[in-house]
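FIELD: query
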Amino acid sequence: MARLALESMPGPVVITDLAGRIVYLNRAGEAAMGVRREEVLHRPLVEAFYKGEKFDAKGRYRSPVLETLETGKEFPGGILEIRAFPHALPKLYLVHTFFVREESGEVAGVCGIYNDLMQSRELTRKAVLNRLVTISQQFETIYAFAEAIGARDPYTMGHCEKVAEYARLIAEAMGLGEKEISLAYICGIVHDVGKIGVPESILNKPGSLTKEEFAYITLHPEKGASILSHISWLEDVVPVVLAHHERYDGGGYPMGLKGEEIPLLSRILAVADAFDAMTSDRSYRKALPLPVAVQELKRHAGKQFDPQVVEAFLEIIGHLV
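FIELD: result
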């Protein structure tokens, strides 16, 4: 009966033994984490869900279950942002962790219960609910843009998600604040939204673009900025998207900005965008080997790219492959 109750929980439930190995994952956990339980059972939690990385860039535990296991600190209902689960954007969870004990009282492991705050009905305080509704609506807007882009160009959907994650990691490595780090991620998701206005015959052309076709492509930052400008809470995203194809040496588009005239997040997007484009298969070529892409970033540092952004990205590149 107890197992049936856990299986019926609407949010993820994870249980580990004292060695940190996963001994139970419910159906909601499978769905949230994008795995089948047989793939992760008896594996260390930090390897199964966090690629072996126990801490984030700021030295915080990535997993509240692991934190409870190693520090003895139980979470009696803390609100946490979980980034490891495979969503286009991080999700807010109300997290409970506690030690699982044998009948003798001996500790056998740790259980973590996650309640998705976007779906939770437990919160009754009006202020909290209003805040969560706002966050949910904003996330839905971002998801809608991502879906619209992906529907036009199968390469662009996965590309935007990877650029968003690379941009977030670069922003963290450069020591930016939480607001800027989150903004970097959002900008990555929507940076190519202007491609909605580009004909599919150009987006998916297997060969080289003509001069006229390339000119059409260069309009997408302005089109994207125009689309996003109609949404008030994305006002900080608009200038970043508009300038993400500017070059550090001033030879980019649409405005020919140079150096620090280009918004920092745009300079970050430029590196993230180029790296993923180089290391991904496209309709017109196969992915470049990682060492070749790295050499291209180095070769164009100070020309196409901000050298400080390239340096920060190269410092973290070992954690991405």
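FIELD: remark
Confidence is low (pLDDT under 50) at residues 84-89, 120-136.
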